[in-house]
Model the fold of this input.
Amino acid sequence: MVFARGREEPPGPGYVGNAFVDALRPKLPKMAIASYGVDYPADISPATGADDMSAHVQSMARSCPKTRMVLGGYSLGAAAADLVVAVTKPAFGFTNPLPPAMDDHIAAVALFGNGTRRILGPLRNFSPAFAGKL
Done:
């Protein structure tokens, strides 16, 4: 689980991220679920979080190619995850887009309190590769 916390939450996966991981564990008792809290200030911009999330996903895909990840975020963290899965070229301050075919390493995307959706519409409109994973 790679989770970006909400605005001004303490470092780590945040309250929602921790609750989400805790809720998943009993549903997947035979799977080891590790969590990574995206390293970013969680203040006003999602770009730094998106860069860190993307770097972590790429690193995990290289070092553990059979591992499939769940990406998630709450509030500002959801906007960071939006950038990672929807933006294919550097934009909006986001400088580290996922390379092609990286979606094979992502099992699902879970976004909570995603304000970006109200403005731009559903994420599946921008990232067809992830449409079935949202």
